[in-house]
Amino acid sequence: MVRHALAAAALALLCISGAQAVGRAEVRFVEPEKFTDAGFGVQERERTQQLLNSHFERLARSLPDGQVLRVDITDVDLAGEVDTLAFHRIRVIGQLPDAPRLDMRFELRQGDRVISRGEEKLSDLAYDFGRIGAQRGQPLQYEARMIDRWFSERFATQLAARK
Predict the structure, then answer these.
(1) Nearest of 28, 102, 26, 32 to residue 57 by alpha carbon
(2) Among 48, 33, 53, 158, which residue's Cα sits nearest to residue 100?
(3) How many domains does the chain have?
């Protein structure tokens, strides 16, 4: 009984506070087995897909209520190269050409209306220059920064409308 009362009180507070609903993302990976470099081995490739999916979902939450960002990722080439001669197959960063790259199609919808769509080939040739900041040491830090930059530039109007 107490739990029900607490849940009802929490729901009422959300309604009173004007909590906003958020946008969402739908991410598909098109033929991921053919990606240039999404990691070494099946587990690392699946982890890469999970991390990219989570990242797009997090970004989409900043879109206005009811907007859906659909992303079809058609190729991934992670920053760095896997040193296959090393015992633990480490990823080496900072040698050219090893910049992160992400090929994708996207569509931003509000209900049945398409707000924006396109095809992108994201890359960051200067990925290893400058500071990463809070992302340093995080998985896919270079790819996340590249996607963040694209998202804020591509959807600036939608993000401004949310504020």
Answers:
(1) 26
(2) 48
(3) 1
Tell me the residue range of the domain where 81 lies: 22-162
Confidence band (pLDDT; 50, 70, 90) for 20? low
Measured from the Cβ of residue 58, the count of other Cβ atoms closer than 10 Å reads 13
Angle at 52 (CA atoms; ends 50, 55), nearest 5 degrees: 110
Give the type of residue at 54.
Answer: S
Residue 21 in this model has a pLDDT that exceeds 80 = no
Residue 94 and residue 163: Cα distance in Å, rounded?
Answer: 38
What tens digit of pLDDT does each residue of 46-77 get? 999 999 999 999 999 999 999 999 999 999 99
What does the angle CA 152 – CA 158 – CA 162 come to, to the nearest 5 degrees?
105
What is the C-alpha to C-alpha distance for residues 127 and 145, in angstroms, rounded to an integer?
9
CA pair distance 144, 128, nearest whole angstrom:
13
Domain membership flag for residue 17 = no
Does 140 map to a domain? yes
